[in-house]
Amino acid sequence: MATTRSAHTVWEGSLMEGAGTVTFDSSGIGEQPVSWPSRAEEANGKTSPEELIAAAHSSCFSMALSHGLAGAGTPPTKLTTSADVTFQPGTGITGIHLTVEGEVPGIDDAAFQAAAENAKANCPVSQALAGTTITLSAKLA
């Protein structure tokens, strides 16, 4: 069964001087302020589309890696994943770097690297961002 998740943004003013609020409709977890300076300069307590993509990508990748490892008979105890989304004003998103550290009993480094590469290639967010260069650093704890 397909699912649809929703969020909406209310923006007021011009790009450079304006600001908006992102509301997470499906989960009801609240609202977050967003602005151009938070995107192109310093966050200053506000989010950006790139930070939201980083959150989506790190969580999706972690789920895909956990699933792949469990399917191979080596479920992880813990995965800690970060996603760094690079934004260049005037160009757009120029790359995403995933970093994962895993506590996975009974697995060697080569198998962990292969599972991480597979998750990078096949998680739905990676697939949605297929036109973007995605790199990966993976290590066992």
CATH top-level class of the largest domain: Alpha Beta
CATH topology title of the largest domain: GMP Synthetase, Chain A, domain 3
Shape assignment: elongated
* Contiguous uncertain segments of 5+ residues: none
| CATH homologous superfamily identity of the largest domain | K homology (KH) domain
The total beta strand count reads 6
InterPro entries: KH_dom-like_a/b, OsmC/Ohr_fam, OsmC/Ohrsf, OsmC_Ohr_Peroxiredoxin, Peroxiredoxin_OsmC
GO molecular function: peroxidase activity
Region (Disordered): 21-48
Protein name: Osmotically inducible protein OsmC
Give the topology, please.
Elements (H helix, E strand, L loop, with lengths): L6 E6 L6 E6 L5 E6 H5 L8 H23 L6 E11 L3 E12 L5 H14 L1 H5 L5 E7 L1
Parallel strand pairs: 5-6
Antiparallel strand pairs: 1-2, 2-3, 4-5
Structure characterization notes:
GO terms for molecular function: peroxidase activity. This protein is an alpha+beta fold. It has 2 domains: 7-40, no CATH class; 49-140, K homology (KH) domain (GMP Synthetase, Chain A, domain 3). 33% of the residues lie in helices and 34% in strands. It contains 4 helices and 6 strands, in the order E-E-E-H-H-E-E-H-H-E. The protein has helices at 36-40, 49-71, 109-122, 124-128, and strands at residues 7-12, 19-24, 30-35, 78-88, 92-103, 134-140. The strands form 2 sheets. It has a 3-stranded antiparallel sheet. The longest helix has 23 residues, at 49-71. It is elongated and about 55 Å long. The mean pLDDT is 97.
